[in-house]
Amino acid sequence: MSSNIHVDKEKDLAKIGNITVRLAKEYEVPAHWMGNDLASHQLRAAWLRMSDEDLPMNPRLVGKPGVGKTTLAVAVAKELKYPVYLMQGTSDTRPDDLIITPVITEGKQISYVASPLVTAMLLGGVCILDEGNRMSEKSWASLASLLDHRRYVDSVIAGVRIHAHPEFRFVTTMNDDSSVYDLPEYIQSRLNPQIFLDFADVETEARIIRYTVPYIEDNLLLILVNFLSLSHKYEETYSVRDGIQIAKYAQRLRSLDSNLTLPRALKSSVFAILGEDALKYFPTDEQLQNEQHSSARPNLRPV
């Protein structure tokens, strides 16, 4: 297998040995991290190289769905000026999907397409493998040599060995309550450090929702973050991502019907987004009246 690599960024092509592969597109969705500063510090530390011979680590971000794991990874990568490539892990992800996939062109010729992971390896970017614990051991096994000191993958289909650029960085996100497969020990030992993300505090969730939904009314935001805070205390999985969707839909309902009160708009949105069970954490009319006059309010200033 060959390790000779020549990349043409303008044409999104790479020559690996005797084959040419088309590169994946960069993930260009903006991300702004407003959560736990410790988590972002830990991720930067994991990717740091202490010398030219030192290798970056391969961290895993663990937490409930919607707490911002992917947002954190994208935000830190962008802050460090790395191109970002996102790959979604699924239960039917195959080893070939992670490396190089052959496709048949209109002229019935075989063409090769590099995965986002391999593209990041070739260009020295960050690969975010989203929901990595949904993948099978067979798929993870194909990455074992990449995640240790060897830093390469082999494509059986294309017949090439691909070595990672020195600036290549890797991170995987994992939902701690929706794993499809248990990772084998030899893979877990390569995915360190573990960086845990939990629900943000009330003020941080308010800032995140305000940043994402800048048109939200203050009183609606106040009721919403208090609802989320109460649900966290009872270990529900309602996240700030859910809060953003609730805020958007409630504000749309209000804009179409000026007679619709804030509580009713928000209650309708909670029901539509999270279902009837979530309404048991929604405040009563009396509680809403008290909250309107409470001085214990989260910081709702624009960010």
UniProtKB/TrEMBL annotation:
This is ATPase dynein-related AAA domain-containing protein. Residues 61-190 form the ATPase dynein-related AAA domain. It comes from Silvanigrella aquatica. GO terms for molecular function: ATP binding; ATP hydrolysis activity. InterPro entries: ATPase_dyneun-rel_AAA, CbbQ/NirQ/NorQ/GpvN, P-loop_NTPase. The lineage of its organism: Bacteria, Pseudomonadati, Bdellovibrionota, Oligoflexia, Silvanigrellales.
